[in-house]
């Protein structure tokens, strides 16, 4: 799958679309243009990274209408709103609807390009974190219920003896479970296992509390 970012531009003015295409391509970014929000929605695959540059006043569904539809379509692209009618109520509605930026026409080319670059990077980071969380969930699914219990106690700083006491089993059993946790989670150290746990909603709220008896290595 091609993961190169694309700038998707929606504007009903053909001259504006051409101008924006030339501007964005001048910094070697891929561009796709659309005259209506429906054209964009029919064409866009939500797995594609990048950002959306969106005019507010469009025939049919407006840019603001599209903004409000994106969550229901599971589209997470950062949206840069462009408008020649920069009144306060419109700006407030756009930002409340999830716009990442609000730029009035006529605008500085550099201001727009900076915003595009910033939000493409933001989208890249979000997608990377989402992929990491998905991979984590897949690894967690490999664990048995007991291995999950051991992991939850280990990452908050419990020593093997403490884990054994809390779970009512022997230290040897804890050592076996702990070894399997490290293997299944593909963690090279306890520190790495802790970092993984911070991405897991079930354990993220439980803060580590290391003490002198707690080994901090695998």
CATH topology of the largest domain: the name is Rossmann fold
> Which CATH-level-2 architecture of the largest domain?
3-Layer(aba) Sandwich
Major sheet characteristics: 5 strands, parallel
The figure for the number of domains is 2
| Cα shape | elongated
What is the strand and helix layout of this fold?
Layout: E1 6-10, H1 14-25, E2 30-34, H2 37-43, E3 50-55, H3 63-69, E4 79-83, H4 88-96, E5 101-104, H5 109-140, H6 145-155, H7 160-167, H8 171-184, H9 190-198
Parallel strand pairs: 1-2, 1-3, 3-4, 4-5
Helix pairs in contact: 6-8, 6-9, 7-8
Describe the structure.
The chain is an alpha/beta fold. It has two domains: 6-131, 3-Layer(aba) Sandwich (Rossmann fold); 142-198, Winged helix-like DNA-binding domain superfamily/Winged helix DNA-binding domain (Arc Repressor Mutant, subunit A, Orthogonal Bundle), CATH 1.10.10.10. Helix content is 50%, strand content 11%. It has helices at residues 14-25, 37-43, 63-69, 88-96, 109-140, 145-155, 160-167, 171-184, 190-198, and strands at residues 6-10, 30-34, 50-55, 79-83, 101-104. Strands 2-1-3-4-5 form a five-stranded parallel beta sheet, sandwiched between helices. Helix 6 crosses helix 8 (171-184), helix 6 (145-155) crosses helix 9 and helix 7 (160-167) crosses helix 8 (171-184). The two termini are 36 Å apart. Residues 204-218 have low confidence and may be disordered.
């Amino acid at each position: 799958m091609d993961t190169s970012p694309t700038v998707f531009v929606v504007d009903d003015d053909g001259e504006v679309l051409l101008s924006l295409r030339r501007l964005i391509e001048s910094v070697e970014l891929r561009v796709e243009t659309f005259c209506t929000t429906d054209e964009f929605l029919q064409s866009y695959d939500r797995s594609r990274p990048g950002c959306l540059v969106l005019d507010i006043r469009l025939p049919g569904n407006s840019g603001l209408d599209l903004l409000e539809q994106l969550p229901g379509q599971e589209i997470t692209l950062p949206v840069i709103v462009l408008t020649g009618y920069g009144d306060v109520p419109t700006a407030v509605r756009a930002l409340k609807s999830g716009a990442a930026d609000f730029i009035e026409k006529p605008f500085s080319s550099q201001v727009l390009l900076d915003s595009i670059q910033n939000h493409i990077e933001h989208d890249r980071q979000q997608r990377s974190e989402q992929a990491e969380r998905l991979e984590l969930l897949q690894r967690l699914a490999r664990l048995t219920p007991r291995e999950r219990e051991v992991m939850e106690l280990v990452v908050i700083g419990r020593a093997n003896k403490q884990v054994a006491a809390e779970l009512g089993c022997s230290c040897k059993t804890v050592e076996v479970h702990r070894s399997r946790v490290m293997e299944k989670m593909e963690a090279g150290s306890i520190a790495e296992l802790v970092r993984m746990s911070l991405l897991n909603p079930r354990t993220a709220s439980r803060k580590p509390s290391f003490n002198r008896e707690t080994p901090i290595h695998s």
